[in-house]
Amino acid sequence: MVFQAPKLRIIYLLISIFLLLINPCATQIFFNYTDFNNKPIIRTGNATISGSVIQLTPDEVDNWGRAIYSEQMHLWDEKSEKVASFTSNFSFIINSQGKDRYSDGITFFLSTPNYPVPSPTDGAGLGLLSRNQMNDATFLAANKFVAVEFDTFPNEEFDPLNSVREHVGININNLKSQISTPWYCTIKENRTYSASINYDSSTQNLSVTFTGFNYDNTIIQQHLSLVINLTDHLPESVEFGFSASTGLISELHILSTWSFESTAPSTIQQSPAPSVEKNKDEPKTKLVVGLRP
Ligand SMILES: *[C@@H]1O[C@H](CO)[C@@H](O)[C@H](O)[C@H]1NC(C)=O
Ligand SMILES: *[C@@H]1O[C@H](CO)[C@@H](O)[C@H](O)[C@H]1NC(C)=O
Ligand SMILES: *[C@@H]1O[C@H](CO)[C@@H](O)[C@H](O)[C@H]1NC(C)=O
Ligand SMILES: *[C@@H]1O[C@H](CO)[C@@H](O)[C@H](O)[C@H]1NC(C)=O
Ligand SMILES: *[C@@H]1O[C@H](CO)[C@@H](O)[C@H](O)[C@H]1NC(C)=O
Ligand SMILES: *[C@@H]1O[C@H](CO)[C@@H](O)[C@H](O)[C@H]1NC(C)=O
Prior knowledge:
- The chain is mainly β.
- It is built from 3 helices and 18 strands.
- Strands 1, 3, 4, 9, 14, 15, 16 and 18 form an 8-stranded antiparallel sheet that branches.
- It is globular and about 55 Å long.
């Protein structure tokens, strides 16, 4: 936008600040990383920074890694019954470097803060949890997760038996996906995939768009979505990020870029007569520095 005078710019700034203050969908968290050096990302397990990217696991057996954002997201607010919306866009590489047999995959997850490490180390749970923890009702009740998995290995106990072994699924506190679809990827080669995960709290639609490859190597867009009330499945504040694992066989897992945006929990638009009054106990919304066009 071109401004004719500094005065106009100030007026524009004041109007923007005012709009941000009264806007119930003000941004809570926003970032856009194309280089992970010196960023507020917490790595655990075998995850390391390699150049500008995060190597969630090396191409070595029995490894797992996570990379989560250092701040929690305020996903919903019990008192006001408000829920946040968010979008997580990322690009990643899963590469078996020519090997025909490989495992296990990557997730984008939201979970109870300080989610325990997988114990014992176990590839099947994609860096989130082990089979033992999966079968422990007390563990699952205390530690909740919702994940979108990019799973490259079909575990016959809980994965779909498609002709395409790689699949993308939405997992609700379970390694067995609530819904899943074949993923047309080429893990033997060094290829970069993109994904966009969006949760719209007004429709409760958790939707995933991700890339795959056609036989002629052209990129295709694939989709998966699930209507889900996240307040039923996650605490009010969650940690969020990525996990990956390898097991008896392996592949390289790399997170190349990540951009993320969430709104502060806001009234679900479908509810009758949204209240204008602000709850005094409500946490203050963080304002994003910088103006949007
Ligand atoms: C993130 O940064 C990239 C590279 O600078 C830019 O192309 C992209 O538009 C940005 N995305 C958002 C959502 O700001
Ligand atoms: C992964 O972490 C485990 C536990 O710290 C360690 O024993 C193993 O050597 C690491 N793997 C690699 C490839 O560094
Ligand atoms: C894999 O592709 C990425 C992205 O294009 C590139 O940065 C990296 O060097 C490639 N790795 C290998 C081993 O070729
Ligand atoms: C959820 O969003 C996806 C992507 O926009 C859309 O294709 C799907 O129809 C939506 N689901 C519902 C139930 O509205
Ligand atoms: C979502 O679940 C919560 C907790 O069970 C419930 O209070 C709320 O009414 C549900 N929201 C909708 C829109 O169904
Ligand atoms: C994520 O990608 C979608 C679709 O390209 C775009 O509209 C949105 O602005 C992106 N958001 C972030 C936070 O990168």
